[in-house]
Every structure is written in structure tokens, then in C-alpha cells.
């Protein structure tokens, strides 16, 4: 093989390898749901204000960007409970909770989304395990994690002798559309 053909194949291989490992940008929208309980029952609150932009390299798992939710928009079907939640989050001082995305690693449909989450002024690393499915240039993620009020330095709401239990279950459903 001549030197020029060898050089062509090397350059072609390098360029096609770079294309496969390309980082794409996605617009994120979705909802987050929490499930909580106390001694007399269990309920869920849902928030559809999940929005953000993320860059993701599906080959390496490297990601960057931010996904936020407006903390005052949780709806549990009970106005008093939702008002308590706004007080716990101190939404006047901290209107949003944001996840700084760092990695999204996929194995088949299983995926782990990692980053740093801020809630009411406290930042902590989180890992959200779930399923990631592709639909053309769009991805759907559904996953969750368990947490506690104390991890975020929050006081659980209480009424008389009833106090909200730990842990809380948090679920994220998101749609990522390639830009």
C-alpha cells in the first residue's frame, strides 16, 4: 500500500472515530415526583417545571449542563400540604432546585445520571438510576433515588404529632430533544 493511501485510511479512521464520539446538545423537559409518608398515610407531589439544557457524549458518558425545577410548583392535591412544602424549601429565598449534570452512563436501557444537586442552598452529589430509551434524536429518561430531609439540612413538615418520614422517594421523568 502506498504512503498516500495509508495516510488517507489513517485520517479517515480518525475522523470517523471523532464523529462517533461527538457531543450533542439536548433540550430537557419533564417532571419530578416525590413520594412521602407519615404514620397515617402516603402521598405524592408532582412538578412539571423541569427544564434545562445538557451536552452529552453517548460514547464516553461525559455530560455538562443544568436542569432546574421551580420548587414552588409541586402539586400533591392538597393546598395546605403544598404550602408546607414551599415553606420547607424556603421558596422565597431558593425558588429553584438545579442539577449540574456531570455524567450519563448507559448500559443497554439501564442508565445512571450523576451530578451535583442543589436544594435550598445545600449542594450534594446525586446518582439517579433509571432507564434511558432512544426514539430517533430524542431520549426518554425515567429514574429515581431516595433521600432524606437531613441530607439537605431541611426540617420535615409536621402537624401536631404527625411528622413526615424519611426517606423520600424522588422520581425524574425527562425528555431530551437534540438541538
TrEMBL record:
InterPro entries: Lipid/polyisoprenoid-bd_YceI, TTHA0802/YceI-like_sf. It comes from the Bacteria. Transmembrane segments: none annotated. SMART domains: YceI. The keyword Transcription regulation does not apply. SUPFAM superfamilies: YceI-like. The keyword Transferase does not apply. Keywords: Signal. This is Lipid/polyisoprenoid-binding YceI-like domain-containing protein. Residues 1-21 form the signal peptide. It comes from Meiothermus hypogaeus NBRC 106114. Residues 25-175 form the Lipid/polyisoprenoid-binding YceI-like domain.
